[in-house]
Amino acid sequence: MPSTVRIGTRASTLALTQTGHVADALARLGGFDVEIVHVRTEGDRLTGSLATLGGTGVFVTALRDALLDDRCDVAVHSLKDLPTGPAEGLVLGAVPPREDPRDVLCAREGWTLTTLPPGARVGTGSPRRAAQLRAARPDLDVVDIRGNVDTRLRRVAPGDLDAVVLARAGLARLGRLDAVTQELDPAVMTSAAGQGALAVEVRAGVTDPQLAAALAALDDPASRLAVAAERALLGHLEAGCAAPVGALARLDAAPTDDPAAADSRLDGAPGHVLTLDAVVVRTDGSQQLRRSARTALAPEQPTVDSVTDVPADPRGTGRLVGHVDPERHAAAETLGRTLAEELLDAGAAGLAELGPR
Ligand SMILES: NCc1[nH]cc(CCC(=O)O)c1CC(=O)O
């Protein structure tokens, strides 16, 4: 008798689309029925600027409450919206393969960041994007906007905005890549920690073996390691999702002298190199700190193969735990903290007014 797995989601089109993909994948992998549960969140209700909503995780709390109250079994979040702090009683059951994490420009007249006319009005609600826009093009008039992806795209029109900056991943999931006029170079516009990745959150100690197996199959260790490094950096800087901080990590096969081994795919390759690029920008764009670091990761030791084995975040650090080899996961987090420390030494805290809220 197959059980029904209840999947909680926000009601926005993007959230529904993302949840739909995850629900389909879990149902297929686990051989159970799924039911979509709509959860209203504070972030959908409030209309103030994202920068003034206060604190992190406005989109997340209601979904987490629904999980903890047993109104759903699985919650799907955009990973970049997840606070880096503790989530007692919950674990990250899966990070599905990440989409292209880059930000994109959606402009009138096919404009790019270079060809936008002087003084062009560019909309974004993100201090990270605003600051990097100002750093790249001090002449731009950056306009604070809010609303879902469609609302923002509609504002690109004569007499209103000349362009908006959005996550490519969101547009891809909504089938709106037609609106993109430029994929922004991460060296100029570094994306947010976790951007383009989804978080599939469950209660700690999942007991349903079908759900546990489906989560394990959906999980992508390379994506999980990358976001672990990015989030450790953000957490160590005590920067929330509204801070002018970008972080992007990638996992590559370790360089080798053996040409045959150089071809080996990432999964099962002898070892990897995790590279993390980060930026902290002054809100007015007048100064930015860009730093990179990398670390070698030993070959994977698959010791944890099911979320049922994962304790409920015992240290209460809000770490992403799950299917990844704990040693590789710890190394990814160390990379993030080390780079954060380097940025703090270079004056990041004063630059971006980081610190506890
Ligand atoms: N903060 C809103 C949000 N959360 C996740 C995405 C896009 C999808 C993603 O990054 O995974 C967006 C919209 C945007 O930034 O354009």
TrEMBL record:
Tetrapolymerization of the monopyrrole PBG into the hydroxymethylbilane pre-uroporphyrinogen in several discrete steps. The porphobilinogen subunits are added to the dipyrromethane group. Keywords: Porphyrin biosynthesis, Transferase. One of its GO terms (cellular component) is cytoplasm. Its cofactor is dipyrromethane. The keyword Iron-sulfur does not apply. The lineage of its organism: Bacteria, Bacillati, Actinomycetota, Actinomycetes, Micrococcales. It catalyses: 4 porphobilinogen + H2O = hydroxymethylbilane + 4 NH4(+). Pfam families: Porphobil_deam, Porphobil_deamC. PANTHER family: PORPHOBILINOGEN DEAMINASE. Residues 293-320 are annotated as: Disordered. The keyword Nucleus does not apply. Its EC number is 2.5.1.61. It comes from Cellulomonas cellasea. This is Porphobilinogen deaminase. The modification S-(dipyrrolylmethanemethyl)cysteine is found at residue 241. Monomer. One of its GO terms (biological process) is protoporphyrinogen IX biosynthetic process. Residues 225-294 form the Porphobilinogen deaminase C-terminal domain.
